[in-house]
Amino acid sequence: MKMTTAHQHPLEKILENRIAIIDGAMGTTIRTYGMKEADIRGERFKDSTKDLLNNGDLFSLTQPKMICDIHRRFLDAGADIIETNTFGATSITQSEFFVEDPREHGGRKDPEFYQKIIDDPMLDNLAWEINEQSARQCREWADRVANETGRQRFVAGAIGPLTVSLSNSPDADDAGFRVVTFDQVKTAYAQQVRALIAGGSDLLLVETIFDSLNAKAALVAIREVFDQDGKKLPVMISAAVGRGGETLISAQTTEAFWNAVKHVKPLSVGLNCSLGPDLMYPFLEELSEKADVAISCYPNAGLPNPLSETGFDLGPEDMARYLGNFAQAGLINIAGGCCGNTPEHIAAIAKALEGKAPRKLSQLEDAA
After folding, report:
1. Cα 17 to Cα 111: distance, rounded to the nearest angstrom
2. pLDDT tens figures, 124-134
3. What's the burial of 237, exposed, middle or buried (CB within 10 Å: 0-12/13-18/19+)?
4. Which one of 7, 209, 259, 343 is at 20 to 30 Å from 31 when CA atoms are compared?
5. Among candidate residues 315, 317, 312, 358, the one with its CA nearest the CA of residue 335
6. Three-class HEC string of the chain
7. Is 292 domain-assigned?
């Protein structure tokens, strides 16, 4: 695989020379601001009938100053790449917060239900607005900090998993039943992709993949948008794995997951979220051996711990030590943190990785 081409993306050049830093957990950091239900509703959503506090993407619309402050703090901590606040910003996921659940009245969620969601103009417009505005907020701060520091920063349009699965049936008596179709998922993702591009994203990041078929729909959507709209961005792909190194719903091993997505020719492939850095190590090692692209790694700060300040066990020094070891072993090109990782965690990681050599991409040219 040859990274140096006439049209080399600026981030590719960075990855050849040093380990790039990606930001930490938006949700964890939001919690430190002490926001309440009234704060996320604002005036616009004050009459919503469902609780919205767990719909963190909405904060981009109702509390933009807080979201921008979080982006600024991650950039100041040393992040080269900041993610848009759009983890659940598809019409399908947003419907959980704005549409009555038919199961509460003896019905069920099925493709007919989700076709109404896809066709709902309110949800369609809301999803577009969250994605575009969040990308614009990231873009503004990435450019501002880049101008102040003389170091280019990048906006990754975050494309998260869904609340529904294409791989599994929720009905124990009907293994072939799916609540949603591949085309419906693809349509929802295509709209998210277009809005993230419209808002100024540099990259697209399909992340926290635990259902490979859902991810496949996202990747097909990305390809179709690129082909139809004539604009192409680098794509990063990152999976969440269980204790056996398998994607959590579709149960693909790390190697099988790579084989399923390598045709996309992503800028990077990696692991995030999951079980914390110590338990992630062997699966990251396997992926690093198999994949012929850059490797990203942004784990949770250990396992959940409700008694901890961040809700997770590991502090900044712990994460810095683990990711420093990953770098020492020559496994990573992009590093950061997922759940439980605040700007302080990212600052410690960035400091620990400063001057450490990235995983060699030149070796991959010989293997490809």
Report:
1. 48
2. 999 999 999 99
3. buried
4. 209
5. 358
6. CCCCCCCCCHHHHHHHHCCEEECCCHHHHHHCCCCCHHHHHCCCCCCCCCCCCCCHHHHHHHCHHHHHHHHHHHHHCCCCEEECCCCCCCHHHHHHHHCCCHHHHCCCCCHHHHHHHHHCHHHHHHHHHHHHHHHHHHHHHHHHHHHHHCCCCEEEEEECCCCCCCCCCCCCCCCCCCCCCHHHHHHHHHHHHHHHHHCCCCEEEEEEECCHHHHHHHHHHHHHHHHHHCCCCCEEEEECECCCCEECCCCCEHHHHHHHHHHHCCCEEEEEECCCHHHHHHHHHHHHHHCCCEEEEEECCCCECCCCCCCECCCHHHHHHHHHHHHHCCCCCEECCCCCCCHHHHHHHHHHHCCCCCCCCHHHHHHC
7. yes
- We report the CATH number of the domain holding residue 303 as 3.20.20.330
Question: What type of residue sits at position 231?
Answer: K
Pairing of strands 235-239, 81-83: unpaired
Number of domains in the chain: 1
Please give the pLDDT value at position 248. Answer: 67
Residue 343 lies in a domain: yes
Compute the distance between CA of residue 23 and CA of residue 341 in angstroms, rounded to an integer. Answer: 9
| Tokens (6 digits) for 128 | 């577009």
Q: How confident is the model at residue 3 (pLDDT cuts 50, 70, 90)?
A: very low
pLDDT at 244 over 80: no
Q: Evaluate the CA torsion angle 266, 268, 269, 274 in order and state its sign.
A: negative
Average pLDDT over residues 200-215: 94
In the structure, what pLDDT confidence band is assigned to residue 368 with cuts at 50, 70 and 90? very low
Range(s) of the domain holding residue 175: 10-367
Asked, for residue 279, whether it belongs to a domain, the answer is: yes
1 in any annotated domain: no
